[in-house]
């Protein structure tokens, strides 16, 4: 395997090593049964020191592909000096924990990921237990029932992969390799502690799951939910939009030339969804679940019952986050009865 130029001629998820710019290489790693297809890990090196932005999921297939990719760059798993993680989801964090145990290397994670990291490491936690509570508040008992069929009785089996980082990352400039520094920028929304890394000199932004080229990131999917994750997300998008435009290096999808162009699309998308969801509220449609049933989802405009339970959950919770933001903006009101949140215009 030899490094290939990042020329956009190949499928972004195709195995290989792709040179994004001098000293920066992209290695897509596999994901299990995941519509995201792959997760991009970025290798930043000056030939002596080697840093990874995100690490992949702790899977043997991902470890093997990363090893082959590093070999093409004249390095090995034991040569990784540091992992800088954009957020605490397992397809970004857990392989770093596994490799740190075996080979060493430091691990850095955004400071506001700490509550979710601690909760993720609780062996008594059931999968998605926080989301079940939110779904019930959305009036989505049918989705809860489908999740129970799919995941009911499954205990948390990955608690050992949620160790604490060596460093809690905070906003500001940070040395990466000799002659290169990143600006750590806090971008909450997808998760509360999500960060992006900006390389001013090279004109790059490692955007993690904050800005993705082909899909709209899920909002607030984390073990410790926040009150208004969509508000946080939109503020974070505007923050990135106020910065100089840069080449975008996402966690899922191809490298693109303009982060601004995609941010504009995402802001427009959520503006439209806020209007559409708010307009659905009536005397007969008062819950997030009822609104979600009336909408189309994904680019194919699929109906909610046609989706798998996990994506039904994401859709309903996204609807709830939009309606809650409309309440915060004074465009809707809400009341709770029997633990279910009802909205009115």
TrEMBL record:
SMART domains noted in UniProt: Lactamase_B
Domain Metallo-beta-lactamase: 38-252
One Pfam family linked to the record: Lactamase_B
InterPro entries per UniProt: Metallo-B-lactamas (IPR001279), RibonucZ/Hydroxyglut_hydro (IPR036866), Sec-metab_biosynth-thioest (IPR050662), WH-like_DNA-bd_sf (IPR036388)
SUPFAM superfamilies, A to Z: Metallo-hydrolase/oxidoreductase
Name recorded for this polypeptide: Metallo-beta-lactamase domain-containing protein
Organism field: Amycolatopsis japonica
């Amino acid at each position: 395997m030899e490094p290939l130029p990042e020329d956009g001629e190949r499928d972004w998820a195709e195995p290989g090593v792709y040179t994004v710019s001098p000293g920066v290489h992209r290695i897509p790693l596999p994901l299990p049964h995941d519509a995201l297809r792959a997760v991009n890990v970025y290798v930043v090196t000056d030939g002596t020191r080697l840093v990874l932005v995100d690490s992949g999921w702790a899977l043997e297939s991902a470890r093997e592909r990363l090893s082959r990719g590093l070999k093409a760059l004249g390095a090995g798993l034991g040569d990784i000096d540091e992992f800088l993680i954009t957020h605490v989801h397992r397809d970004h964090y857990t392989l770093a924990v596994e490799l740190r145990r075996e080979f060493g290397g430091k691990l850095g994670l955004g400071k506001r990921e700490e509550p979710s990291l601690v909760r993720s490491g609780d062996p008594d936690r059931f999968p998605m237990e926080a989301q079940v509570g939110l779904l019930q508040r959305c009036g989505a008992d049918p989705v809860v029932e489908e999740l129970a069929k799919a995941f009911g009785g499954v205990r948390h089996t990955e608690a050992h992969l949620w160790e604490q980082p060596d460093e809690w990352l905070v906003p500001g400039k940070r040395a990466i390799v000799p002659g290169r520094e990143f600006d750590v920028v806090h971008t909450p929304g997808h998760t509360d502690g999500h960060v992006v890394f900006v390389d001013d000199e090279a004109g790059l932004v490692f955007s993690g799951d904050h800005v993705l080229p082909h899909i709209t990131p899920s909002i607030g999917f984390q073990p410790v939910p926040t009150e208004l994750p969509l508000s946080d997300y939109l503020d974070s998008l505007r923050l990135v939009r106020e910065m100089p435009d840069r080449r975008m290096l996402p966690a899922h999808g191809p490298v693109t030339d303009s982060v601004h162009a995609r941010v504009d699309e995402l802001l427009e998308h959520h503006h439209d969804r806020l209007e559409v969801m708010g307009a659905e509220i009536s005397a007969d449609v008062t819950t997030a679940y009822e609104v979600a049933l009336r909408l189309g989802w994904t680019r194919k405009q699929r109906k909610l019952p046609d989706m798998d339970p996990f994506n039904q959950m994401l859709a309903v919770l996204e609807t709830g986050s939009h309606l809650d933001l409309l309440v915060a903006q004074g465009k809707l009101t809400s009341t709770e009865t029997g633990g279910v949140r009802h909205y009115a215009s």
